[in-house]
Amino acid sequence: MRDNLRRRLRAFLPVALIPNAVVVAVVVLVALCALMLTDSGFVPLAATVAQLWLAVNLAPVASDTAVLSQLPMLPALGVVWLVSHRVRVAVRHRISILDLTVLTGCVLLTPVVLALTATAMLLDARPVLPVEVPPLAVVLGRVLLLHLGALVIGMGPKLWRALARRFTVPPSVVDAVAPAVRFLLALAVAGLLLVLVSLVVHWRVLAELLDTFGGGTATAGLVGVSLLYLPDAAVAGAAVLVGSEFHLGGASVSLHDVTVVPLPPLPLLAAVPTSVPGWALVLIVIPPVLAGIVAHGYCRAGTRTWREMGLAGLWAGVFTVIVGALTGGTVGVYGSSGVAVILTAALVAVELAVVGAVVNTVTGILLQRRSVDGDTEPPTDAVDDGEMDDGAGPGVDGEGSDVDGTVTGEGSPGETVDEEDLIAAGESDAPGPDSVDGPADGDADTAAVLAATGDESGHSVPESAADAEERGGDPVETGGTPAPEDPDEAVATGTPADPDEPETQGPERDARDASVETGTDPETGDRDPGQ
């Protein structure tokens, strides 16, 4: 048991260590550059590294006078990409339940250890530097939520479908995630475009704000910070489009009202309007249009049920709550900032579910009319060779087979799946180099089939004489070169029809040669009447 655990740790611990080590290295490099540019010395290096790591992982940072918990999302998205990519590589072949448990523990515990280390570094620096330790529960909660999201993304839809089959979860629960994610991404793009257009419209305000800093390093730093906050701006713009609001301290923005108060001197905030034009309410049709496009793509292959469209809306609402919680927080003396999370999530879920249900109904009617107008009667007397509907037979990744390809349909009882069974997670079902346990017990039957058939294509491989003798049986003739197709050619050349037939020696061969020369039968001695 300990050996298995060690092997799993050797295989999966680097999945979590490598991306976090890259993040720590980048944070240390940025901290060194910042301290050298500001001529601050190296005394605050440890505290700077700790706060930068917390900020990159969306954990709050604090000084002795203020707390900043609304942090830029762009570096955090880089962390998510690094971790999810390593997880995707680790599970691209086949992985057991125990492997997945160890992988999850490594991915989640590694950032927790780093968060505790950063907190300890801040505690050590607090007596000599104006830093404060943020609430530990909030730190751990945000760090765990970020890395758990990276793990979920890295596992991929194929592994999640396999897990759903393993634990008898309806496949529609997993399939409904795809339209929800597409809808949220479309909303984020639309929200970002809204912010950029507003920046262009308010270019005079942006120019005045940049002129107050006189250019140089300060202006470049503010522009860089604004770029890091672009994903946050996209979330805020999407919330405004669906009919919710974004607030920053006492300021708030929606499609029907704007409340203006002094804002931080950040170039990106120049996009906040001072008033709402009357035509702005027209923009509220954008999210339903996007929901209709996404729902049409989801229902294009065939009509869905009301339950599936409701699940898609539910997933969209859940993801909105997670993203809204990570993008919101406190901005120092300005107070809380972010979107109205519950209202935004409810609007997103309802729009996708309702519009999706309408599109699904219309799509079903159109498909039914096409089937009536066209000749849709399929042939019943013959089936083309080599063609089979996906998931229609045993061993196919569909209904009637478990995660290891064992048929579990009626009349063919399936195997009992234990914790060592492998789950097909990647493009190939064969165990890859990252597999810890090697072939599972359930692969013995597959190996036996391959041994019996010779290779995966089904062509038989002849058994050698040595193999037959090892089994205790007689050597098996494997056959030789095929005989010539023309028998006259064989007689004319004197070549036996079967090259493996032993050559005749002695009197029998002399008699046969004589019969060929005289035209007599070698057995009866009668002459051929034709000669």
Automatic annotation (TrEMBL):
Keyword flag Plastid: no
Tagged with keyword Magnesium: no
Biased composition (Basic and acidic residues): 506-515
Pfam families cross-referenced by the UniProt entry: DUF6350
Biased composition (Acidic residues): 374-390
TM spans (from-to): 12-38, 58-83, 95-123, 135-155, 176-201, 276-299, 311-334, 340-367
Chain spans, region Disordered: 372-531
Coiled coil: none
Biased composition (Low complexity): 437-448
Swiss-Prot/TrEMBL keywords: Membrane, Transmembrane, Transmembrane helix
Alphabetized InterPro entries for the sequence: DUF6350
Protein name: DUF6350 family protein
Organism of derivation: Corynebacterium pygosceleis
Taxonomic path: Bacteria, Bacillati, Actinomycetota, Actinomycetes, Mycobacteriales
